[in-house]
Structure formats: structure tokens, C-alpha cells
């Protein structure tokens, strides 16, 4: 299943661009390099890979090799099918270098390809595609970029050439989310669904069913079937001190496999096999024991697979990133990454401890007291490293807490923005005639007409004088209550002389009527 670590949008596919891409990838992965890197025979990518990661095994995709063979040797016509079978046998079917050389010579001779440039170039790159050479590096059973091609096909269903950059990232994000959802669904199925064991009384298969994911258990089950006595037989077994050498041969095959192992004495003095290595290098290249090695373990009465031969990446709990007592080692100068790694290491332990201690009163009290003591000690370490003298005594810890509380008390919220309209979020400053109507309740009723009409001109002048004074006083009191006295002189209250020259005021007064008492 494809696991997406990251993506990059590249302007071109040149060697400098790929160099930048690989360097950025290593930086994001904290400098950890892959074991094997597969490409589609792109020369620019190969040059950049050799420059940035020269020690990484570079493999060629077998699918693209077959595609290129069809492109360059399509003229063979009906004979191309036979050529393809022989070519795939050279890629997958031979264990020894001498066998590969003889098979390739026979292929070139049978199809008369001595002068073909592509065939000669492909043979020079045999260390990147032949199983004889690829088995010496870890590749998890992969020999092609099929997973990457499936991702490309899925993206083509969502993407179109006429999309702008924003829509492109939207559709791409949907495709990535779908891929990660399927990954989570597969993880859930691996943990919740039971695998089928054909030999329910076999300790080795029961162990593998508990630790391996279902796809890996199926592969291990096939290797176990190969290891049975009716399929594999022990031709020769030699014990030389602490080492053994066993020759295994499969039924109806002339090829022999050599299995080497280390022997130790157990508690009762019996010899037991602790280490096993096969000439097929199944474990070194794929990560699971081959049927030949399992046959030798069974022959030496080893009922379960040694823990060292069960890789963490194939386990059911691989996704939970459990460390099982191992110390956290992060080769990175970035302190944030170190803190994050320590946090991931401590959290599962603390959660497990809390769950177990909650079931018993005595255990709960023990954990509570211990955590209180640990908190005090951690505070001492933290305060001492920040230049504050701290010890394990209570007053010093209280002093540290007081400092923290003091910092919290000094924290202030956002200040309210004061503009010409007053405090942001408050009421709008109104015009002078609106303020007069608002304060009409504070003016004697005799100054107004009986039917609530506008005051007459002489009374208006007197009222405006009072309004200008009262408005200024009320505004100052309002700002004082808000905790901030405004000094903005752009807030202007019109006075009597200015009112007489205001055209809006003259029009307003022309429409006013005298009170009935006059």
C-alpha cells in the first residue's frame, strides 16, 4: 500500500531540480535515507540520486524495462513473447551470477541481438535490475514503481489540464485524503479481522498470526508450507562447534540452498539455534524468513520464530509507533523534534500506567503520590536551569509557581480602539439635533409646545447653550468610565456662533413654528 510522505510541485525535470527535491526530502526525514530507490531509467533523476545519496541502492523498475524492451525490440514480432519470457527469467529467476551470464548469452544468441545498442546498455546496468544483485539490498519485495504508477492513474481521474493552480491543489488534496483513508481502513481491518491458520496447533504459525499483519501472514504461511518435510528436505547437516551448515533442496529441483546458523546452549544444556542465514537472502531483501531457514529451525526443534527476525514494520502495532522500553534517539539539532519525540515516547507509558492504577485503590494512591513527587522534582530541574535557585523543598516550588502566576497577572488583553466615532464597537456619535432630542427629558416641559413641536428660535439658542455644555461634560464622563480619556480634538461640539452660520441650521429653523403660548 502506498504511504504518502510528501509531495513537491516541480517546474522541470532536470538534474538540479531533482537535487533540490532529494535534499529537501532528506531534510524533512531528519537525514534518514532509504535503503533502495527505484526509478524509471530517467537519466536526470539517476544523476541527482548519485550526487545526493551515493550509498543508496539504485534499482530500475522492471515494468518500465519491459516497456522499453517492447519499444526497442518490437520488430521481433511474434518472437517478442518468447524474448519477454527469457528476459523476465533473467530479472527474477537466477540466484547465481554464472547462471545469469549463461542465460543472457543464450538470449542474445537466440534472438540475434549482438549488435543491438539497447540490449548492450541494459546488460551493463544489470546490477540495477537482476535478482542476483538486487537480493543484496533491502527492498521489501518491491521490484517496480507499480505503487507510484497506481497513484498517478488515480490522480489522472481527478485532474485535468485546464485546471488552475487552486483547483489543482483542491483535487490533489482529495486524492491524497482518499489514499490515506484507505490506509487507515487497512490498518483497522488488520487489527480487527482474524487470519485463517491452516495448522491451528503449530506454535510458529500461531505466533506469526498474532504479530504479523494479514498480508504478511499470508506470505509467511506460504514460506511455512515450503518448509514442510514433503516440500523441502535436508540433504546435509554439519555442526562445527558453535556453527552449523545445512544444505536444503526443494522437491523436483536440482538447486541447493545453504543455510548457516549459530548454536548456543540453553538452560538445560541443549543446543538451540539463535541465528540463521540463507543463501537466497529472503530475509535480508524482503524482511521475512524463507522456507529454507524455517526448515532448519524446525529441524533444530525451534518452535517459534526468534524475535530478531520479526521486523517492526510488518507488525500489527507498527502504526502505533510503540517503543517498548527503548530510549528515544533523534539525530537532529532541531529541539522541537527532540521534544516531540520524547513526548510520543512518554505518553503511551503514562496512559498505560493510569489505566492500570485506576483499577486498584492502593495502586492509585501510589501513582498519585509518585506523580506529585515527580512534578516537584521536574519543577526543581526546570527552575534551576532557567537561573532560579530551586530545591526539592515546598517554599521554593511555591516561589516558582508565584512567578508563573505573576506573569499571568501581567498579561493584558487587547486595548479598545478609539476613533472619531468613539470606542470601537460602541454607539455612533450623533449630530447636534439628535442629541437635543435625546436630552429633551432633562429640559422643562414649558420650553416645548403642547403637541411636541420644535422650540421657537429664542428658546433654541438657550437650549443649544445648555446642550453644548452638557454634551461635553457627559462625553468626558463616559470616557472616564471607559478607563480612557480621549484627547482627540477632532470631536467638535458646535457653539452658538457657528450654528448661526451653518446652512443646515438655518434651513431647520426656517421650518420651525412658535409655541402656542406666544
Secondary-structure element order, N to C: HEHEHHHHHHHHHEEEEHHHHHEEHHHH
**First-last Cα distance:** 98 Å
What does the main sheet amount to? 4 strands, antiparallel
Give the overall shape: flat
Radius of gyration: 42 Å
If you average the pLDDT, what whole number results? 77
Helix share of residues? Answer: 40-55%
In DSSP terms, counting alpha (H) and pi (I) runs of 4 or more, how many helices? 20
Low-confidence stretches: 321-325, 388-416, 438-458, 471-496
Strand residue content: 5-15%
Number of strand elements: 8
- Numbering strands along the chain, what is their spatial order in the largest sheet? 3-4-5-6
Instruction: State the secondary-structure class.
Output: alpha+beta
Amino acid at each position: 500500500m502506498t504511504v504518502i510522505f510528501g509531495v513537491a510541485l516541480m517546474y522541470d525535470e532536470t538534474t538540479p531540480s531533482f537535487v533540490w527535491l532529494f535534499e529537501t526530502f532528506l531534510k524533512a526525514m531528519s537525514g534518514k535515507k532509504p535503503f533502495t530507490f527505484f526509478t524509471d531509467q530517467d537519466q536526470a533523476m539517476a544523476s541527482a540520486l548519485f550526487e545526493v545519496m551515493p550509498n543508496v541502492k539504485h534499482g530500475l523498475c522492471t515494468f518500465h524495462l519491459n516497456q522499453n524492451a517492447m519499444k526497442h525490440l518490437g520488430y521481433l514480432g511474434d518472437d517478442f513473447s518468447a524474448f519477454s519470457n527469457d528476459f523476465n527469467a533473467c530479472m527474477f529467476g537466477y540466484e547465481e551470477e554464472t547462471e545469469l551470464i549463461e542465460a543472457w548469452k543464450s538470449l542474445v544468441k537466440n534472438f540475434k541481438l549482438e549488435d543491438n545498442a539497447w540490449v548492450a546498455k541494459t546488460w551493463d546496468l544489470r546490477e540495477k535490475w537482476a535478482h542476483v544483485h538486487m537480493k543484496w539490498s533491502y527492498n521489501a519485495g518491491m521490484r517496480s514503481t507499480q505503487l507510484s504508477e497506481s497513484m498517478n492513474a488515480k490522480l489522472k481521474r481527478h485532474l485535468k489540464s485546464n485546471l488552475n493552480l487552486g483547483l489543482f491543489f483542491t483535487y490533489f488534496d482529495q486524492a491524497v485524503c482518499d489514499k490515506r483513508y484507505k490506509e487507515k481502513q487497512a490498518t483497522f481491518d488488520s487489527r480487527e479481522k482474524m487470519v485463517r491458520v491452516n495448522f491451528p496447533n503449530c506454535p510458529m504459525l500461531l505466533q506469526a498470526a498474532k504479530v504479523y499483519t494479514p498480508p504478511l501472514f499470508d506470505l509467511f504461511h506460504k514460506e511455512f508450507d515450503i518448509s514442510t518435510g514433503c516440500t523441502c528436505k535436508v540433504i546435509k547437516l554439519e555442526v562445527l562447534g558453535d556453527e552449523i551448515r545445512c544444505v536444503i533442496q526443494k522437491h523436483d529441483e536440482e538447486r541447493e540452498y545453504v543455510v548457516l546458523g549459530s548454536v548456543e546452549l540453553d538452560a538445560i544444556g541443549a543446543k538451540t539455534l539463535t541465528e540463521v542465514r540463507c543463501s537466497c537472502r529472503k530475509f535480508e531483501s524482503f524482511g521475512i524468513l524463507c522456507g529454507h531457514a524455517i526448515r532448519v529451525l524446525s529441524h533444530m526443534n525451534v518452535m517459534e520464530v526468534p524475535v530478531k527476525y520479526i521486523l517492526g514494520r510488518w507488525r500489527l502495532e507498527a502504526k502505533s509507533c510503540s517503543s517498548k522500553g527503548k530510549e528515544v534517539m533523534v539525530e537532529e539539532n532541531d529541539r522541537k523534534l527532540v521534544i516531540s519525540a520524547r513526548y510520543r515516547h512518554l505518553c503511551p507509558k503514562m496512559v498505560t500506567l493510569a489505566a492500570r492504577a485506576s483499577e486498584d485503590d492502593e495502586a492509585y494512591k501510589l501513582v498519585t503520590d509518585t506523580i506529585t513527587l515527580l512534578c516537584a522534582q521536574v519543577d526543581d530541574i526546570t527552575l534551576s536551569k532557567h537561573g532560579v535557585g530551586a530545591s526539592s523543598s515546598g517554599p521554593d516550588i511555591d516561589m516558582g509557581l508565584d512567578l508563573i502566576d505573576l506573569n499571568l497577572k501581567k498579561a493584558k488583553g487587547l486595548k479598545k480602539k478609539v476613533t472619531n466615532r468613539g470606542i470601537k464597537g460602541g454607539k455612533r456619535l450623533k449630530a447636534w439635533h439628535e442629541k437635543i432630542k435625546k436630552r429633551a427629558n432633562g429640559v422643562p416641559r414649558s420650553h416645548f409646545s403642547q403637541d411636541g413641536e420644535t422650540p421657537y428660535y429664542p428658546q433654541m439658542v438657550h437650549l443649544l447653550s445648555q446642550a453644548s455644555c452638557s454634551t461635553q461634560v457627559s462625553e468626558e464622563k463616559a470616557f472616564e468610565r471607559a478607563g480612557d480619556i480621549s484627547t482627540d480634538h477632532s470631536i467638535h461640539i458646535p457653539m452658538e456662533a457657528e450654528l448661526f452660520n451653518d446652512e443646515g441650521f438655518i434651513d431647520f429653523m426656517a421650518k420651525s413654528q412658535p409655541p402656542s403660548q406666544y
